Amino acid sequence: QVQLVESGGGLVQAGGSLRLSCTGPERTGSNYAMGWFRRAPGKEREFVAAIAWGGQRLSYADSVKGRFTISRDNAKNAGYLEMNSLKPEDTAVYYCAARETDYSGSYYLFDHQYNIWGQGTQVTVSS
What we know:
It contains no helices and eleven strands. The protein is mostly beta strands.
């Protein structure tokens, strides 16, 4: 059952920017770590970025470091992925993921560590 909803994908030229949004899950009283993953055509799903519930601890894949920024707004139950200086190799379906956590500083790098996923949003970067 999908409990996260992504939006903001689209077609952009190389060097351009997009901002992805992720809303959910709608469960009060729980803390969630969040992550972004992507799957390019013909490739395995890969880690992009992760953020702890407290928002202070972040992690990025080397391929996006310095170009992408992950953030969250817990009051709105939302997470974001700001993508700048986009390259054709960033073309993929991007997925938001979440999992409950007892520690505000924990983030997770592997897709099997998450149990709540969105349906994905397509990002296409033209050269």
